[in-house]
Amino acid sequence: MPDATVTLSNTELGITLTSKTDKDGAYQFLEVRPATYVLTVSAAGFANYKQSGLVLLVATPTTNDIKMQLASVATTVEVITTAQSINTKMPRLAAP
Fold first, then answer.
1. What's residue 92's pLDDT?
2. How far is the C-alpha of 23 from the C-alpha of 20, rounded, in Å?
């Protein structure tokens, strides 16, 4: 998914890294300190994705393929009408 925002964070270390996916949906974080992170992904039209407990180690590349779910959409339609009078009397027919 192109142009998604990917965030890698660790509140204990005060680290928040953000990246955007490329045209093929790929993303990469370089020189990440070894720790346990939270990975979040957001993209227009999709539900936010969150993965906690992502352990990253020294000199150990990690691949994390993500499947995004379509966001649920609620549509509200508001119809406003005005009162209209309706003629309920039949017109008289003239005799020939």
1. 65
2. 10
